[in-house]
Amino acid sequence: MTANDNLAHKVLVADDDIPNRLILQAILENQGFTVLLADDGVQAVEVFCREQPDLVLMDIKMPNMDGYEATQRIKAINADTFVPVIFLTATTDSEGLARCVESGGDDFLTKPYNRVLLRARIDALLRIREVYNTVQQQRNELASHQKRLDRERQLAKRLFTNILETGALDMPFVQSMLSPMSLFSGDILIAAAKPSGGLNVLLGDFTGHGLAAAVGALPVSSVFYGMTAKGYSIAEIVTEINLKLKDILPTDMFLAACLIDINPGSHTLSLWNGGIPKVQIYGEKEQKIIHTIEPRHLPLGIVGEEHFNRRIDVLEMRQGDRIFIHSDGITETANSAGEMFGRERLENIFVDNKDSESLFIDIHTALVNFLAGADQQDDMTLVEIKYDQEQLEKTVQHDSEHGKHAMQSPSAWRLSMELGAELMCHFDPLPLLIKSVCDMQGFRGQRQQLYTVFSELFSNALDHGILNLDSKLKQTADGFAKYYMERESKMENLSEGVITVDITHQPNEDGGLLTISFEDSGEGFDYTTDTLSLESNVGHSGRGIQLLRSLCDDVTFEGRGNIVQATYQWTNK
Amino acid sequence: MPVSSDVSADANTVTIKISGRFDFAVQNEFRDCYYNSSPGEKTEFLIDMSGANYMDSSALGMLLMMREYLGGNTAKISITNCSPDIKNILTVANFQSLFKMS
Lengths: 573, 102
Description:
The structure holds two protein chains of two kinds.
Chain A: H1 3-6, E1 10-14, H2 18-30, E2 34-38, H3 41-51, E3 55-59, H4 67-77, E4 85-89, H5 94-102, E5 107-110, H6 115-164, E6 174-179, E7 187-193, E8 199-206, H7 210-229, H8 234-248, E9 255-263, E10 268-274, E11 279-283, E12 288-293, E13 313-316, E14 322-326, H9 328-332, H10 342-352, H11 359-371, E15 380-386, H12 389-394, E16 413-420, H13 421-426, H14 430-441, H15 447-466, H16 477-492, E17 498-507, E18 511-520, H17 527-535, H18 544-551, E19 554-558, E20 563-571
Chain B: E1 3-7, E2 13-22, H1 27-35, E3 44-55, H2 57-69, E4 77-80, H3 84-92, E5 100-101
Parallel strand pairs in B: 2-3, 3-4, 4-5
Antiparallel strand pairs in B: 1-2
C-alpha cells in the first residue's frame, strides 16, 4: 500500500492527551492518511457517525466516556460493515487488554508508539476490512438476487397451480397425493370429466425435477384439458401430447406418462402407459389385485409420429374396483439408511389389506412411517380411482361454450359425411362431427346428450357393422377381454368398409327435429327377429341401444340391419 | 473411474463400462466416451452395466443423447450385464425398443 492509496483512508484518532494526538496526527498524515480528531469518547462517537472513518485509534482513559464504551457504541452503530478499532494503551496488564477485546477492539498498541509497528498494524487491519467489505457486498447482492428469485418462483408456482388444478381431482371417488421434492414438481397429475360422462386422468413424470420439468407440464395440461373437453379419445390425446413434447423437449428430456379413460357407459378402463410403473386394479369382489398392466410404450417426447405407438389396453371395470397408478418416486424413495421403499412393501399392503376403503391411506401412512422424516429424493405421486358407476355417470364435462355459441334460431340444414376404412383406423371423426353440428345450431345445454347419441351410433356402426364383432361376447368377463383384443386386431388390419353419416335438421314449433342416420357397409342383422337380444344386451356389455332409446324420440333399424336412424327433438325453450 | 471405455483391436467395437452410480454426475465422462471414439459406420457400442448399481432417469436421458449423436435409428448400441433393478428401470421405460438389450 503506497502513501497515495492512504489518501482515501480516513483514520479517527480519539485521545484526550493533546501531545499524543498531535504525534499520531503527524505520523499518519505523513503516511498519507486523512486524520480526524476527537478529545473524548462522546466526541469520538459523534465524529464517527458523521465522517464514517475507515479505522479508529482509541485511547482508553478519557473524560465523559471512556474508550471501552465508545468502542461498544461504534461497533453497535456499524454492525454491518467492519471498521477496525485499535486501542492505544500504556499498560500491558492482561486484564486491561482482555477488556479491549471484549468491548469490540480488534487490536492494541502500547505507548510509546513505534512508527513501523503502527503502520504495519493499520495496514493489516485495513486489508481485513477490505476483504470483509467485499464479502459483505457480495452477500448483500446474493441476498437480493435470492429474494427476487424467491418472489418469481412463488409467482410461477401460483400460476402453475392454477393451471394444473382446474381439473377434476376433487371428485369423491378419486384420492391422490402429489409430493414434490422441490417447489416445482416434475410429476404431473391431472383429471378432466369427459363430455359423454366419465373421466380422463393423466399421471406424468418428467426427467429431472424443478422448474425445467414443470415448464413441460404446461403444454401437456393444455392439450389434455382442451382435447378432453372436445371429446377426443385418449389415443388422440396422447398422440398430440407426444408430438408437442417431441418438438419442444431437448433430446435427454422426456415425459413418462399414463393416460386412462374411465367410461361408465361401457364399464371400461382404457389405458395408455409409456414408462410409468405398472398400473394395478384391486378387485372389490376378490379383495386382491386382479389386473396388472405393464407399461407397454416408450415415454412421451422421444420418438416422432411415425414411430409412435398409440395402442390402448382395455379392461372391464366392475362396481367398487380400484385403479392404482403411481410414479416411480413411490417405490424408489429411500429412508435415511439408504434403503428403498420398494415394490414388495407396496404389494404387501394390498395383500394384508382388510378394508379396501383404507387402502389409499394405508399406503400413504406406510410411506410416511418408512421415510420417518428422511429427505425425499424424488417426486412421489399416487392416485386411486374407485370405479363408482353412479358417480362416474354424473361426472360430465359441462358445456363451457354457452357464451361462445349463442343459440341459433332453428333453420333447416343437412350434413352428410362418408368415412372410409383408412380414415377410421387413424382418425376419430366424432369430435369433428359434434363440433360441426353444434356450431351450426348451438344446442345449448344439450351437447352432452348429443355427444352420447353420436358416439353410441358410431360405435355400433363400427364395432358391429364394419368390424363384425359380436356383442354377446361381452357377456362374460373372459369374453369381454377377448372382444377388445379382437377389436384391436381387426382395427389394425382394416382395409375396407364405409360408414355414411347423414344428419338432417327440420325446425318446428318447439325447436327442431334432428334425424341422424348411420349406414355401414357391413352385413347387418335381422332386426325383425333379433331385437330381443338387443334389448337384453345388458350386463358386461354396454348400454348401447337402451341408452339411445332413452335419449332419442325414436330409434329404428332399416335396410338389412345396417342402417340405424335416430330422431332427436330438441327445444329452445 | 466410474466410466471407462475401451476400443477393440479392429476398432469396430467400443465398450463403455459403467461402475457405481449411473446418473448426472458422470454425464461428461459418459459423453466423452462416444464423442472421442470417432465411430465408423460399422462401429458398435456396447454399454457394460456389470459394475453399475444405480441408474436414474437422467441416465436414460444420457442414453437418448448418445443414440441421437450416433445416428438415431441407425445407431448400433447394446446394453449388457444389467442388474435386475437396472433392467427394470430400462424396461419400464420400454428402452428395449430403442436399444439392444442382452
